[in-house]
Structure prediction request, 602 residues.
Amino acid sequence: MKQSVTQILDFFKKHKYGKMTLALIVTGAIIAGALFLTAKPDEEPVPLSEVAEAISAGQVNRIEDSPDTGILTIYYKDKSQDTTRRDKTAPFLEQMKYLGVSETQMAQLQYELVEQKSMSGDKVINIAISVAMLGLLGFALVRMNGGAMAGIRKKYTEGDIPNTTFKDVAGIDESREELIDIVTFLKNKEMYARMGARMPRGVLLVGDPGTGKTLLAKAIAGEAGVPFFTTSGSEFVEVFVGVGASRVRSLFKKARSKAPCIIFIDEIDAAGRKRNAGSGGGEMEQDQTLNQLLVEMDGFAAAEGVVVLGATNRVDVLDPALTRPGRFDRHVNVPRPDIKGRLSILEVHVKDRRLAPDVNLLDVAKSTPGLVGADLANIVNEAAILAVRSGHEAITKADFQEAVEKALTGGVQQKSRVMKEDERRTIAYHEAGHAVVMHETPHSDPVYKITIIPRGQMGGFTMALPEQDRLLMSRNQILARITGLMGGRVAEELFCDDITSGAGHDLKVATQLAEEMVMRLGMSDTGLRVFNKPEGFEGMAAPRTGQKTFEELDHAIKQILDQCYAEAKRIVSEKRETMERVTQSLLKQETLSREEFVAIMQ
Ligand code: ADP
Ligand code: ZN
Prediction:
């Protein structure tokens, strides 16, 4: 026997492809053996439907669910137990509900989330085979794409230290700057503790989907070399009471054992919406999850080095309890990128790809106003796939053009807002109007930044900042501010065919300011009497002023608004040429700094 084996081995050695063939045969034999082992009928994992039936019949005592692996351990009341696998892409409880298990039935057993669980031997092999097959498939896919998918990295598993760094994040430098101290803290938490410095604990990243919030959070962990834990608020919103809360608890437990580390909670608004807003199911659950989150955040000392980063695109819907000091008390805006930003994001994503000489990334950046980092990453990927498909050696200009077109017509990205050219033009005139009026109004704060990059509901914005902090505002300063707010609408009237809803917010703020002046600051001819803001039902039921007084106040408010509007109109009509210059620069650059703006004005 021994001899014959040696003979066979020799045979393989002598042949050219012998070694490879041998390897193939051995691998094949192992797989076949494993398949044979796992195919034994009594070793089959129980189907989920049977688990559901057992639960409905009240036979189950406890279930352990390992969300990382999808492996379930079922402990029956008769002391027997089973292991099985579930679909990892959906929460277990949802699957059970689908299979006809009611909430009451579910509540009768103990449901626990556990960390990765090992299985009995044959099942491990079973899984190993699936993994190997997937790996092979993935490898084949990458090969077939001729390296177009070269960007693929090892899949990230929870609690690892990400290999993402700040180099991977482009175009949102200001947001990044605001987060650098967290890296410093995570790296030197002892030093921070010794010096008694205030340590960051919860930071909210605020920005539209795809602007790079997750990426930024990961990069912080990567830069600091600490583990990264992630979850999403939408995962917490469960039909079954208590599950969200238990997930939060186990997440924080895991994280604290690995501190210093980062916990990232995407879509935190799903878990932390204002309580009692609206009605319907899931609310109780949400409360429990939110409470658990608050308990966990209050429960650890910042010195432990767990930093919680939350992401949302709406701060206004968040429960105020979340943003209180010691919780998510710092907010960092992650804006949509401007042309320069888009260019650098594109540069990051083409790093490992071959580009044809006719590609000009600046042109690509110019043709994608309003798009975010995720869109741009998609465009590069799409262009690479198109290049492979048409047999190009490298990604060509035409590939990019087609990919951009696809993205703009909504082929790739659903939610992104793509600005139409005439809309962009209107926004540019509108913002130029604000800026020019502010610049020409004596008591106005200096213009600090103008942009036509949309943010949230706003098309663009012009920001003015006082040169110093101040305690008081004079009448002239308030009037100047109202005048500046009018500049947007006035510009639309004078330069565009029609007026838009874009001035809605401006007019609201302007009206509030005028109201303040008249009703609460004694800054109009109506006298010094101040009027409290009506509050709640009381205010609605009983007007505090007589009809005549009310008319007087109303008239005074209108007068202030009219006066400021007239002033804004005078300025914009006189500065037509300056308006054009500012607008053109905005269309070209999308964002103007104070220096750039002042240079244009001179
Ligand atoms: P968000 O969390 O804000 O929805 P993500 O961080 O998930 O956005 O972004 C998705 C992907 O888009 C990232 O993995 C990255 O490839 C790309 N991306 C987004 N923003 C940027 C950016 N500023 N720089 C580089 N790539 C980006
Ligand atoms: Zn405006």
